[in-house]
């Protein structure tokens, strides 16, 4: 059944969330990296990397395209699955907001395929990819609010007060 999910904000560590699916702000290689990606791979253990290597050996030989999403096991995380999505690098000269919105939509689509009721998202692309936090929060909240999904709760897990305040401003 499609509905609009409840949206909650948490200041904390996404790797500690007891949810059906955790969304990873991955790089296209799917083989780990820094920030959220590195934290998920470290805490989730080698099972996640092994599953990502299988994806690279089959459907995603050239990597996961920006704006798309794919699921793997969550390994040792307190979740059932990790949904990997590749956010766009922010550009001052090119509007890539559609790709950022696609990360949230595609992740919710994968969550629906999995039957996930609860999904934890980070603030995709707002770290090393340079997306301004306020705009990233606006796109995230608007996209989740307007995407039909069977997910019951979307939890934005925000690492610091700046991110939390930006998301709270767009949620109200």
Automatic annotation (TrEMBL):
EC main group: hydrolase
The protein's Enzyme Commission number: 3.1.1.106
Keywords, alphabetical: Hydrolase
Domain of life: Bacteria
The protein's name in its UniProt record: O-acetyl-ADP-ribose deacetylase
């Amino acid at each position: 059944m499609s509905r609009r999910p409840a949206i909650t904000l948490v200041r904390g560590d996404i790797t500690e969330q007891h949810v059906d699916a955790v969304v990873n702000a991955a790089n296209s290689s799917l083989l780990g990296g820094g920030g959220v990606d590195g934290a998920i791979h470290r805490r989730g253990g080698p099972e996640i990397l092994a599953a990502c290597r299988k994806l690279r050996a089959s459907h995603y030989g050239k990597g996961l395209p920006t704006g798309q999403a794919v699921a793997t096991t969550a390994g040792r995380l307190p979740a059932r699955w990790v949904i990997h999505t590749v956010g766009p690098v922010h550009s001052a000269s090119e509007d890539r907001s559609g790709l950022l919105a696609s990360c949230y939509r595609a992740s919710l689509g994968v969550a629906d395929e999995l039957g996930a009721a609860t999904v934890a998202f980070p603030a995709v692309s707002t770290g090393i990819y340079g997306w301004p936090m306020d705009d990233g929060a606006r796109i995230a909240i608007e996209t989740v609010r307007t995407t039909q999904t069977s997910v019951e709760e979307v939890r934005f897990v925000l690492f610091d007060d700046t991110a939390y305040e930006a998301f709270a401003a767009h949620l109200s």
